[in-house]
From TrEMBL, chain A:
SUPFAM superfamilies: Ferredoxin reductase-like, C-terminal NADP-linked domain (SSF52343), Riboflavin synthase domain-like (SSF63380). GO terms for molecular function: 2 iron, 2 sulfur cluster binding; flavin adenine dinucleotide binding; metal ion binding; oxidoreductase activity. Its cofactor is [2Fe-2S] cluster. This is Oxidoreductase. Coiled coil: none annotated.
UniProtKB/TrEMBL annotation, chain B:
GO terms for molecular function: iron-sulfur cluster binding; metal ion binding. It comes from the Bacteria. The keyword Metal-binding applies. It comes from Streptomyces pseudovenezuelae. The keyword Iron-sulfur applies. SUPFAM superfamilies: alpha-helical ferredoxin. It holds the Pfam family Fer4_22. Residues 377-393 have a biased composition (Acidic residues). Residues 256-287, 337-365 form the 4Fe-4S ferredoxin-type domain. This is 4Fe-4S ferredoxin. Residues 370-393 are annotated as: Disordered. Keywords: Iron, Iron-sulfur, Metal-binding.
Length: 268, 393
């Protein structure tokens, strides 16, 4: 603190679902330092406020993308931003997915709903260097087909296994139905030699991590991205505490062996 | 080094000259004074504003001024405010944003106008609290620049404690009535048949230089001995204490304790404890726009983990029950603070006890948690965790 937001212009706006858009942003002047997959920015909507949002795309040009779901005053304002509008960004904040931990191992990415957005740059980074990993799996779930984001990406990724499932299908849905953990049985991974990356709603994270552990994936190789209220992102506001962790610095990505006992306490 | 020079003695006039010298230097002097039936912190231009002849009577949910016949200025324990009111103010402008008719947005950081403070009468517990806030707000990867600026410019004059209150328990948090390093000057007030005077020692070059400017005399053996005896005596007269156990460990093992339900029945979740706590640092932010809608300001203000909005995530608060919010406060203070900042978050000043409208006593709650845990639970928990981890592998 007190870092001041850096103006970024919306250069593209892609609606993902009824309530979710992806904004592609370019710095108006000076750029922020490079973001790594898993990190987040504090995104400022003029007159409304700031929210933490993970990056859903990182470019070496200083540009990046955020996928935002309209759930409150700030996210509603950001979702309504038009091409040419200016938003403020502070960052990069938080730790990264640490893809390097998966070198020589199977990569297993499990996403729930908009949780696919922060995982997207991780998948792209892994696919850009396929020889560094054994097999790459991407499993994504959503409540309904209409809640699936990044559908084109999911179709185009050449992974060992890309599974997509929805809880409530519509008449046109020809794919899997059910929770995302049901796809685990079909994915190509050797549990003991797998690094898993999980993001989604907290109940989905718990269920997925529990099943992965059950399959035999080492707890320290299950990386989950967690979310708490955040005001400053610099470790001073106290809001993002999860027990001993200040998630803006010790997170948002946490190893399951550390997250599990914390998430098992009600209202911690 | 001058900083470790022998202690000196100031009389009441000498203390007056010290304040005058600070004012003459252009410093904003803040110290205790009597106002609204309490000893509060306020800016002062003369030592006459100090609460000479006033003490306090404290208990859970109770604070009363009492007149003292000895005319002492620092024979009172912590009042409703702490120095964070000045170093980490309740409201602070962080930055502003302006939007042009074309829709371009620019951001301007706010450089606070920082007075050069001199804090007079910082109790040893509060000196520790300042050191703790230093770690939190300036010791990490990022610095709270406003705090850092105010803090670096502040001169600290400690007043050692000779009159602990009934709600005091600093000794059981690892502190005590004697001032730890970190002060520029440390006073110990002595009032006896030989008169009203202050034993003063310098803790910094600046403190030593300041002392040279005011009338003083070398400390005599009797004054030094009396001062030492008063402070040592205070150590044995703490009104309360925390149980002598590893609190970090106790809190960590008590997350599911029944006692949280008991305290939740009494706690109003008003947040008073967090406001008066000298180490509580949490803040929130708000966006304020003017009538044109094209000028916005980003303000930071104190927040409390007792507020429902504190843990709000889309959909609702993470901590909705009073039980979980009280547990968050106490567990953070005594346990997870260590994980985050490598220090305790409690200095034993007793403010949270005195200013709780329901009279909840942190020392009583911790004692109850300790009693609930019992001596044998410790080993049980360990065995359980091991078995569980084994199965998972």
């Amino acid at each position: 603190m007190t870092a001041v937001p850096v103006p970024h212009r919306v250069v593209a706006r892609r609606p993902e679902t009824a309530d979710t858009v992806t904004l592609r942003l370019e710095p108006v002047g000076a750029a922020l330092p490079d973001f790594a997959p898993g990190q987040f920015a504090m995104v400022h909507c003029f007159g409304r406020g700031e929210i933490p949002v993970s990056v859903s795309s990182v470019q070496t040009t200083g540009g990046l993308a955020h996928t935002i779901r309209s759930v409150g005053a700030v996210s509603e304002g950001l979702c309504a931003a038009r091409v040419g509008d200016v938003v403020g960004l502070r960052g990069p904040y938080g730790n990264t997915w640490e893809l390097e931990r998966a070198r020589g191992r199977d990569v297993l990415v499990v996403a729930g709903g908009i949780g696919l957005a922060p995982l997207r740059p991780l998948v792209l980074a892994a696919l850009a260097e396929p020889e560094a990993y054994r097999r790459i799996n991407v499993l994504a779930g959503a409540r309904t087909p209409g809640d699936l984001i990044a559908r084109k990406d999911l179709e185009s990724w050449a992974t060992a296994c890309t599974g997509v499932t929805v809880d409530q299908p519509d008449a046109d849905w020809r794919g899997d139905v059910g929770v995302v953990t049901q796809l685990l049985g079909r994915a190509h991974f050797d549990p003991h030699n797998t690094t898993a990356y999980v993001c989604g709603p907290e109940p989905m994270i718990r269920a997925t991590a529990r099943d992965l552990a059950h399959h035999g994936v080492p707890l320290a190789h299950i990386r989950v991205s967690l979310e708490r209220n955040m005001r400053c992102a610099t470790g001073h506001c106290g809001h993002c505490q999860l027990g001993p962790l200040l998630l803006c610095q010790a997170g948002p990505v946490v190893d399951w062996n550390q997250a599990r006992p914390l998430l098992s306490v009600r209202e911690l | 080094m001058t900083a470790t020079a022998a202690p000196v003695v100031l009389d009441r006039d000498g203390l007056g000259a010290l304040v005058a010298a600070l004012v003459a230097q252009g410093r904003t002097v803040v110290g205790p004074t009597v106002r609204d039936g309490a000893i509060v912190l306020a800016e002062m231009t003369s030592a006459d504003a100090l609460p000479y002849g006033w003490g306090v009577e404290l208990d859970a949910g109770r604070y009363r001024l009492v007149a003292r016949e000895d005319g002492a200025a620092f024979a009172h324990s912590a009042g409703p405010q702490s120095w964070k009111s000045y170093l980490h103010p309740q409201r602070e402008l962080l930055w502003s944003a302006d939007r042009t008719p074309e829709g371009d947005v620019s951001f301007t950081s706010h450089e606070p106008d920082v007075p050069a403070y001199a804090f007079l009468g910082v109790r040893p517990c509060d000196l520790r609290a300042i050191a703790i806030q230093d770690r939190v707000l300036t010791g990490g990867r990022f610095e709270d620049t406003g705090y850092g600026k105010r803090r670096r410019g502040a001169l600290l004059i400690a007043a050692e404690c000779t009159e602990p209150g009934a709600t005091c328990f600093c000794v059981s948090t690892g502190g005590g009535p004697a001032a730890d390093p970190g002060y520029d000057l440390a006073l110990t007030e002595v009032v006896d048949e030989d008169g009203h005077r202050f034993l003063v020692r310098a803790g910094s070059e600046e403190g030593a230089r300041l002392l040279e400017q005011v009338p003083h005399r070398a400390a005599d053996v009797a004054t030094e001995a009396t001062a030492r005896a008063s402070v040592d005596g205070a150590r044995d007269r703490m009104g309360r204490s925390l149980p002598p156990v590893d609190l970090r460990d106790l809190m960590g093992a008590s997350l599911d304790a029944e006692r949280w339900n008991d305290v939740a029945e009494r706690c109003l979740t008003c947040g008073n404890c967090t406001m008066v706590c000298p180490t509580c640092f949490c803040t929130t932010t708000e966006e304020v726009t003017d009538l044109t809608g094209d000028h916005a300001e980003r303000w930071q203000h104190w927040d409390s983990c007792f507020d429902l909005d504190f843990s709000y995530l889309h959909g609702g608060p993470v901590r909705s029950s009073a039980r979980s919010r009280y547990r968050q406060w106490l567990t953070h203070k005594l346990s997870t603070w260590h994980d985050q900042f490598d220090t305790t978050g409690c200095v034993g000043c007793g403010r949270c006890i005195a200013w709780c409208p329901a009279g909840i006593d942190i020392t009583e709650e911790v004692a109850a948690l300790h009693a609930e845990r019992g001596p044998e639970t410790e080993t049980e928990t360990e065995t359980e965790t091991e078995t569980e981890t084994e199965t998972e592998r």
